[in-house]
Automatic annotation (TrEMBL):
Designated name of the protein: DUF1636 domain-containing protein
A Pfam family hit: DUF1636
Residue ranges the record marks as coiled coil: none
Organism taxonomic ancestry: Bacteria, Pseudomonadati, Pseudomonadota, Alphaproteobacteria, Hyphomicrobiales
Organism: Tianweitania populi
Length: 140
């Protein structure tokens, strides 16, 4: 560097502020060969996801039915300004993966949940990715 040129300090861009993510767990989900009575796996998954979300900024809410009955226990993830996701074929052991995916989604710099970094349960269980209305405005 020449003596008369000013020193340049490069300041990295700050990390994006995490976005609020809500996880909706279908509490009525059950496996096809299960009787309709009794505690359903979806309800047990809701309890496990709620517990896994403690000490995080992820909101967890149970819903009556996500209409994905053929593909097992289902969860949806919503983020303001982001695409929405529907996952199926989950099980009661998926709570940690669901919260890890929600945290990944919350810190994504674009409106998507990065595929490569997703936990395996969310890679193989992806049912749908749904655009926001704002994203539809940009289509031809």
């Amino acid at each position: 560097m020449a003596a008369d040129s000013p020193a340049t300090t490069i300041v990295p861009d700050p990390a994006p502020e995490p976005a609020a993510v809500t996880v909706l767990v279908c509490r009525s989900c059950r496996l096809r060969d299960m009787p309709a009575d009794g505690v359903r796996p979806g309800s047990r998954l809701l309890d496990a996801v709620t517990e896994a979300a403690k000490d995080t900024d992820i909101t967890v809410q149970g819903v009556g039915c996500l209409g994905n009955c053929r593909r097992g226990i289902s969860v949806a993830m919503l983020r303001d300004g982001g695409w929405s996701y529907l996952f199926g074929e989950l099980d009661e052991e998926s709570a940690g993966d669901i919260i890890a995916g929600a945290e990944l989604f919350a810190t994504s710099s674009d409106p998507f949940m990065p595929f490569r970094a997703r936990p395996e349960a969310l890679k193989r269980g992806l049912i749908a990715r749904i655009p926001t209305f704002d994203h539809l405005k940009d289509l031809p």
